[in-house]
Amino acid sequence: MPFYSKNDRSAIRALTKPIMTDGHEFNASPLDYDLYFIGVFDDLTGQIYDQQLKLVISLATVKSELKRDQELMHEHQQIDLFNNKDNKDNNDGKDDGKDK
Q1: E-assigned strand segments in the chain
Q2: Which residues contact 27 (CB under 8 A, 6 or more apart)?
């Protein structure tokens, strides 16, 4: 299904929600879909110029990268929670050196 976008990155960004939505066809079968650049759309005339067919990225690749990013974010959150707890434990009952 063709759509237009300002650039490749915004086109990929537009597909991220459907790719990560349970029940959406892009999520269920990402190997069946690829994102292609087909040309430059002129919104005044409705014509496509500089027509060429160029693979931008497969949706399976996008899905795996999004999943990896989510896992890394989760790991960083766990590390932050651990570090915050560790800092709190180290500071409990200690004089912070400030005058009262």
Answers
A1: 34-37, 40-42, 47-49, 54-58
A2: 18, 19, 20, 21, 63
Q: pTM of the prediction?
A: 0.66
Inter-helix orientation angle 59-91/8-20, to 10°: 80
| Residue 78: C-alpha distances to residues 9, 82, 88 (Å) | 29, 6, 15
- Does residue 1 lie within any of the structural domains? no
Take residue 96 and report the two structure tokens written for it. 């912070």
The first and second tokens of residue 71, run together, are 């896992």
94's tokens: 């200690």
Domain-embedded: residue 19 = yes
Containing structural domain, residue 76:
8-91
- pLDDT for 11-50, tens place per residue? 999 999 999 999 999 999 999 999 999 999 998 999 998 8
